[in-house]
Design a protein that fits this description.
It is a single chain. The chain is mainly alpha-helical. The protein is built from three helices and no strands. The protein has helices at residues 5-11, 17-33, 47-56. The N and C termini lie far apart (32 Å).
């Protein structure tokens, strides 16, 4: 909620729920595939890389 909705609602006014959903879908893809995470399990990898690396084990 803090990372998407609060930022998005400050930048844009949505007239239809479908437009908000489209922006959310795009953000989720970027969040999981482009953003690196420095937590204990990710160690600088993206969440998707961490997930798929764990499945190979």
């Amino acid at each position: 909620m803090n990372e998407f909705y609060q930022v998005t609602f400050r930048k844009k006014i949505y007239s239809m729920l479908e437009l908000l959903q489209a922006d959310l879908d795009e953000w989720v893809i970027k969040y999981n595939t482009e953003r690196t995470y420095q937590g204990k399990m990710c160690c600088g990898r993206t969440p998707f890389e961490t997930l798929f690396d764990g499945q190979r084990l």
